[in-house]
Write a structure and sequence with these properties.
Order of helices and strands: HHHHHHHHHHHHHHHHHHHEEHHH
Pfam families: DUF6297
Protein name: DUF6297 family protein
Organism: Actinoplanes sichuanensis
Helix content: 55-70%
InterPro entries: DUF6297
Largest sheet: 2 strands, antiparallel
Structural class: mainly alpha
Shape: globular
Strand content: under 5%
Keywords: Membrane, Transmembrane, Transmembrane helix
Distance between the termini: 59 Å
């Protein structure tokens, strides 16, 4: 019979073992650096934060405030579900997860930290909704938002050990996010929402908040006791996620995170063999099959074409950046395949394909996806009165391939090069490797300059401007294929 041992001495031994390989003030220096950086960034961006959380002219109606709250709820819950939320550190996963120690005591610190983070997120969301709402509200609602965030963390913790509950809560969160975004888009395009009731009395708000606080305390106690049901594989998956995030931040290598997300998605899918389309090149057919096997992403990509409608009243340069970003994100739906080709060209050599033919075949699906997204987004903006007259659907068709070549170039970038010489500035040394990696692909957005000039100048989309954009995109893509590939080699890393 296995006896349960005390957890505190084991944790103390792990800390001492870790401290033997570190400097004594390493942890305190890290905490000081993080807190100081947050404080400095907050002071530098105080005007932006004030404009986001408490603008001078509020613009949300009652229905808009509810829609924003629904979006925040869905995002917080889905983020918690992706992070675990209950996790352990790598040493604890190695030493303590399979050890005969109390499971609630082992996982309670993680649940407490997650609940605190969710409370901060919920309180910030409630503060932002109140600051942007036309009607005034009680400041106690900020506390209500924080308590609701804790309840979302406890719900995500319960779903971590119950697959059916996880599927249900994830579906509800996605529906809340979709409905909230639909309400915001409808209001931004001119829909007049119905007026809600007057402001609730302060006594009612205090009573509801007090009842919610009591419910939160009870739910937290039950959640700590329920931690024993959390399976090891779910905890290890959360620990892997936290470790990958830490490695991505410490090593300034975002590809770690994207690769983990891709592997996690396909590891949970049951696939069957399917013939590639015979009328398409083999790699283009593979990309098309990959896009078809991710219907949820295609649905969200199609729905995201309406999101630029939320930015009709903002400065035009913000709308242009949103359009370019959405186009590139839509084109990246199949970029994982060319990452695989760049990292392991063995299959390409077996197929007898050189680098130019590979990049040319991989470019078709991203270009088509980018063109479809740009055409739909610009068409919706024109229908809503956010753009001047013109053939904006044709401008989207001419602009879309630029998003495809940007996605392909970014996928071929490989890892961040930390061996490049840093640049010394008056504020300290700046590593050049992450900067070069960040601009890999974005430099090709210069091919979208004709469309950007037309949008920033608030000019109509004439056929001349469309022809210029199509010509620049075609010449730029041709030059990229000629300069970055070679018919005599297979390697794609660039």
């Amino acid at each position: 019979m296995t006896a349960v041992v005390a957890l505190r001495p084991v944790r103390r031994w792990i800390r001492k073992a870790q401290a033997a390989h570190r400097d004594r003030g390493d942890a305190l220096a890290t905490i000081y650096t993080v807190v100081f950086s947050i404080a400095v960034l907050s002071v530098m961006a105080q005007d932006t934060l004030r404009a986001v959380f408490s603008p001078l002219v509020p613009h949300l109606s009652g229905v808009g405030a509810l829609a924003t709250a629904a979006c925040a709820t869905g995002l917080i819950h889905l983020t918690l579900r992706r992070l675990g939320p209950v996790s352990v550190t790598r040493p604890a996963a190695y030493f303590l997860l399979t050890a005969p120690v109390s499971r609630p005591k082992l996982l309670a610190p993680s649940l407490l930290a997650t609940a605190f983070g969710a409370a901060v997120a919920g309180g910030a969301a409630a503060f932002g909704v109140l600051g942007n709402t036309v009607a005034s509200g009680s400041p106690i609602l900020v506390v209500t938002g924080a308590l609701f965030g804790v309840l979302l963390a406890l719900l995500a913790s319960a779903a971590q050990s119950r697959p059916r509950l996880a599927s249900l809560t994830d579906t509800v969160a996605r529906l809340a996010l979709a409905i909230g975004l639909a309400g915001l888009v409808a209001e931004a395009t001119g829909w007049t929402p119905p007026a809600l009731g007057g402001e609730a009395a302060a006594s009612v708000v205090v009573t509801v908040t007090g009842a919610l606080a009591a419910l939160t305390v009870l739910a937290f106690l039950l959640g700590v006791r329920d931690l024993a049901r959390t399976p090891n594989d779910a905890i290890l998956e959360s620990a892997k996620t936290a470790g990958t995030l830490a490695d991505s931040v410490y090593g300034i290598e975002p590809s770690f995170l994207s690769e983990m997300l891709e592997r996690r998605y396909w590891a949970t899918r049951r696939l069957r063999s399917t013939r590639l389309p015979r009328r398409l090149p083999p790699l283009t057919g593979q990309d098309l099959l990959l896009a078809r096997r991710r219907p949820a992403r295609l649905v969200w990509t199609a729905a995201s074409t309406a999101l630029p409608l939320l930015l009709i009243s903002v400065p035009r340069w913000v709308l242009v950046i949103a359009l370019l970003a959405g186009m590139v994100i839509a084109a990246k739906a199949t970029s994982a395949t060319i990452k695989t080709d760049a990292g392991n060209p063995v299959l390409l050599r077996m197929l007898g394909l050189d680098s130019r033919r590979v990049v040319g075949q991989r470019l078709w699906v991203p270009a088509v996806l980018g063109a479809i997204w740009a055409t739909a987004a610009l068409g919706l903006l024109q229908a809503a009165g956010g753009l001047p007259p013109g053939q904006w659907w044709a401008m989207g068709l001419a602009l879309g391939p630029v998003g495809g070549v940007v996605a392909v170039r970014a996928a071929r970038a490989g890892f961040v090069r930390n061996d490049l010489i840093p640049v010394d500035t008056p504020m300290g040394s700046v590593p050049t490797g992450p900067i070069v990696y960040a601009f890999a692909g974005l430099d090709l957005l210069i091919l979208a300059l004709p469309a950007v000039i037309t949008l920033l100048g608030d000019r109509p989309a004439t056929w001349t401007a469309i022809a210029v954009q199509a010509g620049v995109a075609a010449l730029g893509i041709r030059a990229y294929l000629s300069w970055s590939t070679d018919p005599s080699r297979v390697g794609l890393a660039k």
